[in-house]
Write a structure and sequence with these properties.
The chain is mainly alpha-helical. 43% of the residues are buried. The protein is built from 24 helices and five strands. The longest helix has 27 residues, at 98-124. Helices cover 58% and strands 5% of the residues. A five-stranded mixed sheet has the order 2-1-3-5-4. The chain is globular. Helix 7 (98-124) runs antiparallel to helix 8 (130-141).
Length: 506
Amino acid sequence: MAAGSIERQLAKLLQSRAQLFALLFFLFALLNISTLANPPYWDEILGLHNQAIYLARSNFDLPQLYRAQEQFRNGGSCVYPFGIMPFVYGALYSLLPPVAVHIAGHLINLASLAAAGMLFLRLVRKFCSPGLTLLWGIAAFSEPILSGRMAAQGQEAALAFGIMLSLSLFFNRREKAALAAAFAACLIKTTGIVLLCAYAVWFLYAAAAGPVQERRKKLLAALASGAAAVLFYSSAALLATQDYPEKSGVFHLGIALLRYHLVHFYPWVALKLAAALLLFAYLFFRRRLPSACRMAILPVFLGGFFAAYFIYTGPQLVRYSAIAMLPLTLLLAYGFRACGEKRAALAAAVLCALQLMNQYGALLPELPPHLAADPSQLERSREFLKVIEMNRAFAREVENAPVLPPLVCKWPYPQILTMPELRYVSRPLENVFSYGLHARYAPAPEADPATLSDGNTLYLYAADSMDSWFLPRFAPPPGVRVVYAADLGGRPALLLFSGIRLLKTP
């Protein structure tokens, strides 16, 4: 009797959008309360907050922002030329102190994920019992990649909401609204192009497999979604603000790239994806699904996303895949219809247990030593939070030092040590110099020859990808004088040292 009452209350909750959203937001905030005031880190510093702070400082001087010299690859601040989130954060920086901006950023992320979760649960409820729906909800949000986004700022959470909103409208047969939402999602981040492309493919499939009388309508929808995707992609390609000199897609690194990502980032995601696709294929080819099945949009979207992820000629960042995690779990839940409710519940429970154990990467292999503190790779789970704490401790130590000799460092440490808006230091530190790609929006000047040829200059080695992107590497040779050291998991993560000369004096 009690179990039936709980089931009815849960079913009632799943029917109320407002109550479900409020409950999820409260739970997410409670689970992440210790990170709500965290400062931005790594790519948030280089991208979103870079552009937002520039906009706030310049009173939203858009002509200057979009000039060629302000492009990201030149050390400028035009990182997301179409993105609305930098403008949201820019407005916040104009109105609020930095700590309030960062708390607001975390709350925006949590609200976005709560809204996405509400839509996800209501979709799962269409084919699952209330109890099983709850299990799949826990399985969705205990995914370590998505769980990590709850503890960050960034744009992936808002994009995940935009994608789930579009898919929800699509599954409810509101196709024009779904395309409009997908187009709007591209204004959050151009990664939303993948969903527009998936719609183009699905509408072509529906035109061929569905009723003849709807063929013209489906073809027009395919044309609209394809044209929107081409518009966004061509505009981004013309601006090319996020390009790097390095090329790292599969056409350049081949099977090594696939193997590295599958082993270090996606072993569990790959298993979930394989299971979801196999179960869907079983349902599809056994003709248990209607012609022009709307659920077919999910394998098209997921396949397109991961194909684009690995072919993209730039750094593939794990957090990009956060937008695929809810659609993946939705497809997995749908596929397990073929196995019966008891087996589906067991699978969801096992998945929840494994993912909860993996929140800090316990079930993932160690990264290579030279990437032990790379947040862009530690975003595979909540491991990146350890890097934030490490960097805050380092910045406090440097700021409290009575005398600071010249200190040369690479992104994002010039920003961390000289931009109080980021809340690692309370004032811009003097004698900090940048090396490699120079961030012109940070007070730290470029390291000059006199500094690089002085044997007393301090160099900061961080075990992250920036150290190898901007050569020479700062990994200290034997015999140097180490003045500060921090480790993660017993491996060197930060080393501040002197005793080398990058430029030899004659």
